[in-house]
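quick one: 1-O-phosphono-alpha-D-glucopyranose bound model?
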Amino acid sequence: MRRPPRTAIFPVGGLGTRFLPATKAMPKEMLPVVDKPLIQYAVEEARASGIEEFIFVTGRGKSSIEDHFDHGAELTEVLSARGKETELRASRDMMLEPGQVAYIRQQDPLGLGHAVWCARRLIRDEAVAVLLADDLIMAKEPCLKQMMDAYRVAGGNMAAVMDVPRAETNRYGILDVVGEEGKLAAAKGLVEKPAPEDAPSTLSIIGRYILDPLVFTELDRQEAGAGGEIQLTDAIARTIGRVPFHGFRFDGRRFDCGSKAGFLEANIAFALDRDDLAQAMTDIVRRYAKALPPGKDAAS
Ligand code: G1P
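yep, here:
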């Protein structure tokens, strides 16, 4: 039995250019789905999966993420004075304990692999988790928790995976699958963002990883890959043969909150999932659906 990770890395240094102007002065990870920032969903998922140490790899202009997980002294005072117990509890519950969280800067945006590598001095010689906040996953059991249970048996490197339309393989890390057993897909290779005609499959990496320490040795090489960036996918791929790699087909719905349509859909889905908003959102969706011209799919 392998010991699942205690530490999680959250790469949050990206510029978020796809969401300009919203992200000009605000980190994209702070964009709210309903009333909670994307990064908080990721942190809550990690916490609910048993993670005890949280490392944020940040960049310039990202300080509101640090403030978000810190005390809000003025806010606490106002909420107490007004007797707003529920809000007070919510803001207290989301705080991470002193010493449980570390922030480190990625000084240059050199890629996801580089961001993860920036955390190398803060981790031990054991498995770590990586969560990308813009992959938002709605699931009964947190996606990372599902992976941890599978990891206890399978070990090695693991990433959450799902099938995507072939036309979209150039947006993901793609598995070269050798065999499937239950929810695990063993791979003999990984390719970052291949063109649809070159993709070895349509099984794609979604932003949840459990990494063997060997990946950091590979990241030390600082080799640029697809798009001229240091890719996490490449570093993991280079360990195959020494460490097994499995894609994990998780149970749950993933929303690509790195795209506008995915982000908007997440807002609708999470509102529909909330007792206090389900009715209002149902009415809204019905009203708009009725107004759509016949034959037009709401997703188009
Ligand atoms: C990153 C990874 C890619 C993965 C994707 C999941 O790409 O490089 O392998 O499939 O996250 O969202 P990005 O979306 O940062 O370009």
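Residues 112, 132, 135, 172-173, 192, 204-207, 231-233, 258 surround 1-O-phosphono-alpha-D-glucopyranose (CB under 6 Å).
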